[in-house]
Amino acid sequence: MLDVPKLPRDAFDEIYAVDGGSTDGTVEYLQSQGITVHRQPKRGLNAAYVHANDVSNCDAVVVFFPKTTTPTEDLRKFRPLFEQGNELIVASRQIAGAINEEDAGLWRPRKWAVRGLALLAAVMWHKEGCWVRDVLHGFKGWKRSAFSRMKILDYGLSIDIEMVVRAYKLRIKRTEFPTTETARNYGETHFKIWPTGKRLLGYLWYEIRRND
Fold first, then answer.
1. What share of the chain is helix, strand, coil (3-state, %, to 5)?
2. Torsion angle of alpha carbons 160, 164, 169, 172, nearest 10°?
3. Strands 60-63 and 36-39
4. N or C: which end of the chain has fewer CB within 10 A?
5. How far is the C-alpha of 196 from the C-alpha of 206, rounded, in Å?
6. What pairing do the DSSP bridges indicate for beta strands 88-92 and 16-19?
């Protein structure tokens, strides 16, 4: 929670958290910082985003994970991009000017996997506009009206690539800006690349057959 005191609160009309059932004091800490905490009624990553969109009182939502791996100052970059008419904005670790946590090494399995999924999604559905390179980064923003049009699944963990694919299919205006990702200084990711990748490929197969 080292990022929480650094949040640029003046850049947003409301700041809140969505909690999936933590019992480690996270909720109490956030509340002590004046941040409203919404308990998501359904477990899962997709469900968290759906709930975040539902409880917002604003026209747009920005998601940020306070893990000290991405700079809080990048949160200020969203509003100008929304004002330019973008409806989906991704803080990218994959484009020029960005830094990925794996860039320091020669073996970059997560980075290559993200690029592969981005290429696959683009080949199947990209028709115009921005080709999103970072299809698995949760640090993003969207217009709530666009999110409703996307009809995001409220289960699973396809949310990041699903929003990109649905934006392609619905011709929703989108963009990326480069961000910096550093290695975690505590804990491990809950989304291991191989099992997560298999589930995301399953989602893409579902999207191929999806009619809406």
1. 40, 15, 45
2. 120
3. unpaired
4. C
5. 15
6. unpaired
Query: In sequence order, which ranges of 25-158 are alpha helices (DSSP H)?
Result: 26-32, 45-55, 78-83, 109-125, 144-150
- Per-residue pLDDT reduced to its tens digit, 36-83: 999 999 999 999 999 999 999 999 999 999 989 999 999 999 999 999
- 174-178, strands of its sheet edge to edge: 60-63, 140-143, 88-92, 174-178
Quick one: how far is CA 90 from the chain centroid? 7
Cα distance between residue 175 and residue 144, in whole Å:
16
Question: For residue 153, what are its two tokens?
Answer: 């699944």
Rounded to whole angstroms, how far apart are CA atoms 36 and 165? 31
**pTM passes above 0.85:** yes
- Specify which residues 61 forms β-bridges with: 142
Residue 7 CA to residue 16 CA, distance in Å, equals 11
Closest CA to 168 of 106, 90, 71, 78: 90
DSSP single-letter state for residue 33 = T
CA distance 130 to 33: 37
**Phi, psi (degrees; rounded to nearest 5) at 62:** -120, 130
Single-letter amino acid code for the residue at 140: K
